[in-house]
Automatic annotation (TrEMBL), chain A:
It comes from Streptomyces griseomycini. UreD, UreF and UreG form a complex that acts as a GTP-hydrolysis-dependent molecular chaperone, activating the urease apoprotein by helping to assemble the nickel containing metallocenter of UreC. The UreE protein probably delivers the nickel. Belongs to the UreF family. One of its GO terms (molecular function) is nickel cation binding. HAMAP family: UreF (MF_01385). Pfam families: UreF. GO terms for cellular component: cytoplasm. It is found in: Cytoplasm. Required for maturation of urease via the functional incorporation of the urease nickel metallocenter. This is Urease accessory protein UreF.
Automatic annotation (TrEMBL), chain B:
The gene is ureG. It comes from the Bacteria. It comes from Streptomyces griseomycini. This is Urease accessory protein UreG. Its main location: cytoplasm. Keywords: Chaperone, Cytoplasm, GTP-binding, Nickel insertion, Nucleotide-binding. GO terms for molecular function: GTP binding; GTPase activity; nickel cation binding. The keyword Chaperone applies.
Amino acid sequence: MSRGALLVLADGRFPAGGHAHSGGAEAAVGAGRVTGAASLEDFCRGRLHTTGLVAAAVAAAAALGVDPGELDAAADARTPSPALRTAARRLGRQLLRAARVAWPSGELDALAGRFPKGAHQPVVLGVTARAAGLGPADAAYCAAYESVSGPASATVRLLGLDPFDATGVLARLAPEVDAVVSRAVGAARGAVGEGVDALPAASAPLLEVGAEAHAGWAVRLFAT
Amino acid sequence: MHLGHSLSHGGPDAVSAGARRPDGARRALRIGLGGPVGSGKTATVAALCRILRDEVSLAVVTNDIYTREDAEFLLREAVLPPERITAVETGACPHTAIRDDISANLEAVEDLEDEVGPLDLILVESGGDNLTATFSKGLVDAQIFVIDVAGGDDIPRKGGPGVTTADLLVVNKTDLAPHVGSDLARMAADARAQRAHLPVVFQSLRGEDGVRDVAAWVRERLAAWTA
């Protein structure tokens, strides 16, 4: 694996559309559930062990070469909210565009041909990791970290939260990111032999419900 | 004109700065409109649509900051059929969506070409932002920066990437100049000094045909694009 390539892919400035999404933080702030650094940490911890774990496992499985079509269907089944399914495919399409320029590869071209309107973002992330010479753990790290870094940076904008406090939240969650990645990669290796049903299906109902409500807001800063 | 070649090596195009669509047809000319909040970008887009819609096939992408207000204004004014107007959500940062991470905007322009094309022209409007907000060359072929006389007549002198480098600088709301004490001659001289040979248009959309100079500039770009 190339640690340099991992840094490029994991960079929050990688131009793949993530900046327009809060990962449910805007809905949680609006509902009064996230009000400062402590409640942001709770929110991120919940997201990491549910959505984050699932995304990391799907990404790792894609990096291991599990069929993208099956993984896309598995991600659909694990995403009850139609708004989040639409957003995941849109982000997948945006990531694919950037990835095909950064790491040109036949597999990425084939994915674009098969899913012209986008596959779930973690699926694209895993195939991108393969194209970049990265492994399943790298793909899982990108997905797991993104599941908490997105809400943290969005909350800085939404609440005027002290950016050092928000970064402190991410630093405190780092050991849990390691643990989630380890679980995700184990499940992904299982999926290679047993199929996608071996992938985790942890879900955070309030994230799904909040996303549906948020999609109906007339005034909002973030797309999700 | 930006005629960058595709880096793809098979399958659908990875990037869309190239002048051709995947089927080989010429894609639409893409013109960006940026500038500070309230300077008259949406009004200029609306006026351009009214004057150009019978001449060319066109569509609009808006980048609002926190609502779909600009898109809804264009819909309400019925300057184009609704399927020709797309709003991109920008996560509180329009300048990111038009410059640093253009993926959502590229999708919007490609989807418009797929769904209502063939198109000759797509106007990409930025949400109101600051004087440093400019469009990526990967997204637009040319850009218009819109300021207004009421925002302060020292803006051309202060410069900044929008004022200095935009392909066309529009100084809007000239009818307000006497009421806000703005010196149009000074603004024109400052703009000339900042922009060398790049063009500047002074306009008021209050008057009949107020957008004609900008429309003429757009027609020139279209002629060069299709030449």
